[in-house]
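ok new one. same drill as before - structure tokens go in, u give me an amino acid for every spot. 615 of them this time. try not to just spam alanines like last time pls lmao
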């Protein structure tokens, strides 16, 4: 039987697997009716127990949503990790860590108890969260809540507001939190302004969010503090990593041990019915369903997290990244030179010293283990004079990886090896991470394009072994590879139909799509050939031809720009065709030379493909 093709509308209606999974969770767990809506804050008891929304945010900024994902509810205790991270950045780790512990308490979230040092056990229980808010209040005074609201908004990627009714209800019934506040004051954890601190705390708990908001907020935690939707670095990686640590051990209160054992994703719940889960370097999950279990966690939300973790095996301690996958290609310039078309003298030098330049193309995350593997791989072959590390496929660099890179570069410097980095924009976070550790090193150069980096390295080898690269040298037609084998008479006749053209630096000589009506033989200077999207195909110096594809194509397929002041012999195609008819032997020779040049380019391209597929 022949399968019938899918109708186009079926394709457009199809859903990504993760969205289908969330739909399945929504449909399956909607039938769950266990639990009770929180009522110790009267306004929370008004929540519709049927509400159920799920959202998942990826680290590339895509957000999946199903069910009641846009229904607002109050953030409650889910504010705690974000306020803790804010305090770390605003006040410094020493001050915050000196006032609040990081050990799990084993008690309910609203326990009126401190640790042996009379400090809160951790910032995820009410005592620790109130202390955290108190530290910010001591520093910012009446601006404290606005600082907190703005930080929560930056995590969510939009302006967040307060549910005044919940705030009022929480304030009126918050005697247990007042008891905690005065306990903290008695032990000098917070200052005399207990009422003001608690007012800020009640307000921060009454901030309105949605399941979508908390998914994005969780993804920001998972993304080292960078909001994947807005691209903003909200807080420092230090504050984020410490916050995730406490969420891992204490985020789910007296259910935290069971949670991390079975689900294995740092998470935080709130009595408003929300749960957020942040899987580092992977995703953020947010869910909303008001019915809570005996621990104060959303019953349906727990089930969603359990299902996600088990279905996709996402336990954070079950990672299988292989450092060997960090290298996508490893070669020397003999196997894959730059796109610079060089003269014979330069080619001879580079052929004799092809192992002097080693190129290692990297991919994925540059972690400590990945950098360690690369350094050992580099040491496993003879020492190069220059090593190029291409990072354009690297998605991120950990601080540990960056520090180990710097230490490896220091060792290379001691061995007189020059390091060239390519593929990293200077305005990027990756550049900042690398430069934190490598800024003082004198043996490191950088170029954004890999081909530019390889070309620079080749130039250094040419210079070191007695060669010269004179862009101002003037060449004649007899030195053109395309015209190799032509007699003096044939070259004289060809010269008679040439016009010498002069181009200023940056001038556009050939434009994609224009008629291919002339050939050019570069007489002096340098030009580069690029595709319309900016990809460079070649750099040509004096003695090279360009526009030669006019012999087999009717329209230009690339642009040509002058890299510097340049001159070229221009030959109109109609005159060149007449020359070929008058000199059939020369015509045959030119076409053979063209075929050889194209074959050489194809060999280089195939070699690059082989390198990328065999490493």
């Amino acid at each position: 039987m022949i399968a019938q093709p899918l109708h186009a509308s079926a394709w457009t209606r199809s859903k990504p697997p993760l969205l289908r999974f969330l739909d399945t969770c929504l449909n399956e767990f909607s039938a769950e009716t266990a639990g009770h809506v929180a009522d110790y804050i009267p306004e929370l008891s008004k929540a519709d127990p049927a509400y159920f929304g799920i959202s998942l945010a990826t680290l590339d900024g895509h957000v999946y949503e199903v069910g009641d994902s846009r229904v607002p509810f109050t953030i409650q205790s889910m504010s705690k990790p974000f306020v803790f991270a804010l305090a770390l950045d605003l006040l410094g780790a020493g001050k915050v860590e000196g006032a609040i512990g990081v050990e799990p308490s084993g008690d309910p979230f609203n326990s009126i108890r401190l640790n042996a040092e009379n400090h809160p056990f951790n910032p995820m229980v009410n005592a620790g969260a109130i202390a955290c808010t108190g530290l910010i209040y001591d520093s910012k005074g009446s601006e404290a809540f606005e600082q907190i609201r703005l930080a929560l908004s930056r995590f969510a990627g939009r302006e967040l507001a307060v549910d005044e009714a919940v705030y009022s209800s929480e304030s009126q019934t918050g005697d247990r939190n007042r008891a905690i506040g005065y306990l903290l004051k008695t032990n000098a954890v917070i200052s005399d302004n207990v009422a003001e601190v608690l007012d800020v705390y009640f307000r921060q708990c009454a901030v309105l969010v949605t399941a979508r908001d908390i998914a994005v907020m969780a993804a920001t935690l998972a993304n080292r503090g960078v909001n994947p939707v807005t691209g903003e670095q909200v807080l420092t990686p230090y504050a984020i990593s410490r916050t995730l640590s406490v969420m891992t051990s204490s985020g789910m209160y007296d259910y935290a041990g069971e949670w991390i054992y079975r689900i294995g994703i740092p998470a935080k719940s709130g009595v408003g019915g929300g749960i957020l889960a942040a899987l580092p370097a992977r995703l953020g999950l947010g869910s909303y369903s008001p019915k809570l279990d005996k621990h104060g966690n959303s019953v349906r939300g727990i089930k969603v997290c359990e299902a996600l973790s088990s279905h996709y095996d996402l336990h954070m301690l079950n990672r299988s990244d292989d450092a060997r996958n960090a290298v996508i290609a490893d070669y020397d310039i003999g196997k894959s030179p730059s796109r610079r078309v060089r003269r014979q003298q330069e080619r001879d030098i580079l052929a004799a010293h092809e192992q002097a330049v080693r190129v290692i193309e990297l991919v994925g995350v540059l972690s400590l283990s990945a950098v360690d593997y690369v350094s050992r791989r580099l040491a496993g072959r003879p020492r190069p004079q220059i090593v190029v590390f291409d990072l354009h496929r690297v998605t991120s660099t950990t601080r540990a990886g960056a520090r180990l890179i710097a230490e490896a570069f220091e060792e290379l410097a001691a061995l007189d090896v020059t390091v060239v980095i390519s593929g990293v924009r200077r305005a990027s976070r990756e550049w900042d991470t690398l430069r934190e550790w490598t800024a003082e090193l004198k043996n490191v150069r950088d170029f954004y394009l890999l081909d530019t980096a390889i070309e620079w390295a080749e130039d250094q080898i040419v210079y070191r072994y007695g060669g010269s690269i004179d862009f101002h040298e003037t060449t004649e037609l007899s030195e053109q590879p395309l015209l190799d084998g032509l007699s003096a008479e044939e070259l004289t006749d060809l010269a008679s139909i040439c016009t010498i053209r002069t181009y200023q630096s940056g001038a556009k000589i050939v434009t994609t799509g224009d008629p291919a009506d002339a050939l050019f033989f570069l007489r002096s200077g340098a030009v580069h050939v690029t595709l319309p999207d900016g990809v460079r195909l070649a750099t040509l110096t004096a003695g090279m031809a360009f526009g030669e594809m006019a012999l087999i194509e009717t329209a230009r397929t690339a642009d040509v720009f002058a890299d510097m002041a340049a001159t070229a012999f221009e030959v109109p195609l109609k005159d060149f065709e007449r020359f070929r008819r008058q000199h059939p032997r020369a015509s045959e020779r030119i076409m053979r030379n063209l075929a050889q040049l194209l074959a050489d380019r194809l060999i280089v391209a195939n070699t690059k493909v082989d390198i990328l597929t065999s490493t």
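The chain is about 40% helix and 20% strand. and btw Residues 584-614 form the longest helix (31 residues).
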